[in-house]
Amino acid sequence: MLASIVRWAVLCTVSWGCWSVVRRFMVGTALDNIPGPPSLSFFKGNLSQLFNTHGWEFHKAIAAKYGSVIKLKALFGENQLYVFDPKALHHIVVKDQHIYEETTPFIE
């Protein structure tokens, strides 16, 4: 009985992992149309450049090349939206904050 439960749990975990990988590469997202710099590493993405001690040079370079809304790569190739347009940030944070979804860690 316990062996079949363990087998079922392993099968579900492996299936979920395979589905996540296939979905990431086969199904597009809205962020695919936003320009951004290539990542240096699949594991760290652009985070090592973004949070470096000389990171302001990276911020200036991507702002000059890609504009004020940029797609960055995070851990394990996850796409993240990087916004530093004052008007867009005003809409997201102040004016229309009820429209934008906030995660539980952000609220806590």
Automatic annotation (TrEMBL):
Keywords: Signal. One of its GO terms (molecular function) is monooxygenase activity. It comes from the Eukaryota. Gene3D superfamilies: Cytochrome P450. Residues 1-20 form the signal peptide. This is Predicted protein.
